Amino acid sequence: MKLAYYPGCVARSTGKEYEISTHAVCEALGIELEEIDDWNCCGATHVSSQLVSTGLSARNLVRTDLPVMTSCSICYSRLRAAINQMEDSGVREKVNGVLDVKYEGEKEVRHVIEPIMEALEGAEDLDKVVTSPLNGLKVAAYYGCLLTRPGGGIDSPENPSVLEKLIKLLGAEPVDFRLKMRCCGGPIFMPEEDAAADTLIRILRDAKKSGADLVMVACPLCHLMLDANQPMLEKRFEEEIGLPILYVTQLAGLALGLGAEKLGLEMNSVSTKPVLDKLQAAREEEEAAMRKAEAEVC
Amino acid sequence: MSATKANTETNESEGEVFKKQVLKLAGDEVKTCIQCGTCSASCPTAHLMEDPIRKLIRFVLEGMKDEALESKSIWLCTSCLLCTVRCPRNIKPMAVVSALKHIYEQEGRSCKDSVFEGIFARQIKTRGRVSEVILSGEYMLRRPESAAQVMAFGAELVPKGKIELDIEAEMEKIEGIDEIGRIFELGEVEE
């Protein structure tokens, strides 16, 4: 499978480990990525003019004939919103009036989760793909806001289950996580730190209460807010959280048998060692049980 | 005619113009709002807002320009789109907030939140992409009280190699920067 790849700005800075693990997982699954030439920022949630926002995403979409894949939920949402907007002939005419390459026909946008799911669900023998199943690992799937919004994308914007399905395919166990769709507040974090902190601590407390070993995220802003920001939240609220926050591609990579260094795990702020240790312990236990069974047969 | 009456009339017509502006940007269907409050009930930051989103829409429909534009609520919207997914009238409440921000900025009004949005948009306009180090650096210069927050993040991210301190590389422009400039002009001629 070949897809056009739209990294988005964060992939080149605070979300570097997301890009590293995206490439590693896609390569392992035979998904070929071709980076869009001279791509531009999608504007995220910070461009107040809808027409400008649509124009920015349209310029990225016209630069390839392949379906566009991105790992960032904000870019994914902006690109999809632009496709919806461009269905309006008035908007299309105005935007095409300023684009070098005109927007024509149908465009397709996919979140990295989609080709990963397809590769796993379509595998003849899943055990040969998921070579290191994440047995015993409890995962809180965090959707955040824009992965499923606006509707019509990867899953229901009200009651999605795609991440839980993925967690099961990887051999881990999804936990019941009440605030899985509560927005992290990242878009207003810079000027409205108190408001964002108030939301973030609720999400982390709820994830912790759910008994999860880690939170799995699909957006670099959610990751920044829950991971890099976690030590600051611990200080602010004077409580220990210590909850590893892994990107969907980092977790999938571990199940595919890719090493921690290939997935950029050392770049996470909250140590991912407890997750790796738990997996290692489960594997050793399984091997011991197998040896015992073999000995009994002999 | 008394001066007070004349003023009221001017205000009314200014309110009408404002209402039309918002409807043009956010969609004519905003007029069909039944004030059910589904948007406010879904909003993750509603508890922090003096004027929940339902009320902002009412302000718009009543032509209450200053009440709407100067409401702190428009900057507490995280753009999460849950209001838009749920509105039973298929209104896009978030688009109303975006329209209010847009008019606020176009009128040259300013607050710390619009300063951040302005820096973000200007980066795209001048380079085509956003550099987090320049973004946070410039915001810190404009809002010195944000220094502690920015520095704490820097201390966390720089050792991880996630923030590039090579400013020259961070200043590079994409090739299609003129095209980006034309895309931004779409916003300016919108009114």
Structure characterization notes:
The complex is a heterodimer of chains A (298) and B (191). Helices cover 45% and strands 9% of the residues of chain A. By secondary structure, chain A is α/β, with parallel strands linked by helices. Chain A has two domains: 110 residues, Glutathione S-transferase Yfyf (Class Pi), Chain A, domain 2; 162 residues, 3-Layer(aba) Sandwich (Rossmann fold). In chain A, the strands form two sheets. Chain A has a four-stranded parallel β-sheet with strand order 2-1-3-4. In chain A, strand 5, helix 7 and strand 6 form a beta-alpha-beta unit. The longest helix of chain A is centred in the C-terminal third of the chain and has 25 residues. Chain A is globular and about 75 Å long. The termini of chain A are far apart. The model of chain A has no long low-confidence stretch (mean pLDDT 96). With 191 residues, chain B is mainly α. Chain B folds into two domains: 104 residues, Orthogonal Bundle (Fumarate Reductase Iron-sulfur Protein, Chain B, domain 2), CATH 1.10.1060.10; 77 residues, no CATH class. Chain B has eleven helices and no strands. Chain B is globular and about 50 Å long. The two termini of chain B are 32 Å apart.
Gist of the model:
The complex is a heterodimer of chains A (298) and B (191). Chain A has 298 residues and is an alpha/beta fold.
**Architecture of the largest domain in chain B, according to CATH?**
Orthogonal Bundle
Low-confidence stretches of chain A: none
Morphology call of chain A: globular
Helix segment tally of chain A: 12
- Principal-axis shape of chain B equals globular
Structural class of chain A: alpha/beta
Unreliable parts of chain B? 1-6
Report the helical percentage of chain B. 55-70%
Q: Kindly give the count of domains of chain A.
A: 2
N-to-C order of helices and strands of chain A: EHEHEHHEHHEHEHEHHEHH
> How would you sum up the major sheet of chain B?
none
Average pLDDT reading of chain B: 91
Separation, N- and C-terminal Cα atoms of chain B: 32 Å
Question: Biggest interface pair, residues each?
Answer: A-B, 57 and 62 residues
Tally of domains of chain B? 2
Q: What proportion strand of chain B?
A: under 5%
